[in-house]
Design a protein that fits this description.
The protein is 71% helix and 2% strand. By secondary structure, it is mainly α. The longest helix has 40 residues.
Length: 352
């Protein structure tokens, strides 16, 4: 069994173990999540996400079984083409590699985290649009995020294989992200569409037995030998579909900082895992972050341009930490400007 397979299995076992603790112990009873509980879990997930930077900084070479200078150069050339070694000794080169991997991971994590805040607003529209009871939010988001992990796993590793065979795909990703960023930046504010009017909802209503009331904390049940799906199942499908759409922005964006499937997957998963607790913490504040949307647009433009120019970045002396600095600047600026120049109260009420 290869080092890559073992590394992925160890990581997946760790993630599943944490999720099971959350499901079987912390969330064993259906209840409304308090701000205190959301804050505690947000701190836990963010600490794990940021703390993983240190794991990669010290043990990043283990992922691909690097044990020699030749293996190191092979892996760096395959997954980290932007890395230019400034030293010749194996230990010094290994330190440079691990530092680069750690920086790429944390850059990807912050990109995903920033984009995911925008996704919280979409989740809120779906949950409120279907009048989901507050006590069921936790269960819906748990299974929604679990499904998102599976989808991301498939998308990311398929994407890496495609990029290795057809590097020009990066140009398509870059052009798409650049277009998305410019579109979001200049898009006029409008009332969000009612999720009940979605073509997906209409299709499901015509093809499954749908129970109309929230009288059970289940996704489906059997009655008189027939299988019925509850509105919670409909909402779960909508949450999964929204994440599928969201992934078309977020996954190509991560490829702008790294082509290593482990780095892309780790940064995605740690950001997603904290999404549910972050939802309960900031869902009611999302509308107040007026500069979040321009910030997201600017990030998409940045990573799109980086993908389009990836062939020239090495010649220009572009370093991985430059991406981290820019991402951090955009995140902090979006929050600070939103606090300094808040929306007027009547406009917030109107948007709600």
């Amino acid at each position: 069994m290869s080092f890559e397979v073992i590394s992925m299995l160890v990581f997946l076992v760790f993630i599943v173990a944490v999720l099971m603790v959350d499901l079987l112990f912390v969330g064993r009873k259906v209840h409304v999540i308090s701000t205190k509980e959301a804050l505690i879990w947000s701190v836990i997930w963010i600490s794990l996400g940021i703390g993983f930077y240190l794991v990669l900084f010290h043990l990043g070479h283990i992922l691909h079984g690097i044990d020699s200078a030749e293996k190191l150069k092979e892996i760096a050339n395959l997954y980290n083409p932007y890395l230019e070694f400034t030293s010749t000794g194996y230990e010094e080169m290994l330190l440079e590699y691990k530092r680069s991997q750690a920086i790429n991971y944390i850059s990807g994590y912050f990109i995903e985290k920033t984009l995911s805040v925008d996704n919280i607003f979409v989740m809120l529209i779906i949950l409120q649009g279907f009048s989901v009871p507050l006590k069921d939010y936790k269960m819906i988001l748990f299974w929604g995020i679990l499904g998102a992990i599976v989808l991301r796993f498939i998308f990311i590793f398929a994407g890496v294989v495609i990029i290795q065979k057809f590097e020009w795909v990066l140009l398509l990703f870059g052009a798409f992200l650049l277009f998305q960023g410019i579109r979001i930046l200049f898009e006029k504010d409008k009332e969000p569409a009612d999720p009940k009017d979605s073509w997906l909802v209409k299709y499901l209503k015509n093809h499954i037995n749908l129970h109309t009331e929230y009288d059970r904390d289940k996704f489906w049940f059997r009655k008189n030998g027939k299988l019925f799906f509850t509105p919670l199942f409909l909402v779960l499908i909508m949450i999964e579909f929204s994440d599928l759409v969201f992934a078309f922005d977020s996954i190509p964006a991560i490829f702008a900082v790294s082509r290593d499937p482990f780095i892309v997957f780790f940064s995605n998963i740690f950001a997603i895992l904290g999404l549910r607790s972050l939802f309960f913490l900031v869902a009611n504040l999302v509308n107040k972050f007026r500069f979040l949307k321009p910030g997201v647009a600017l990030l998409l433009v940045f990573v799109g341009a980086k993908l389009l120019l990836h062939g020239k970045l090495k010649d220009w002396g572009f370093q991985p930490e430059y991406s981290l600095y820019f991402i951090a600047f955009v995140m902090v600026s979006s929050i600070v400007l939103s606090v300094i120049f808040p929306l007027k109260e009547e406009k917030i009420i109107h948007e709600k």
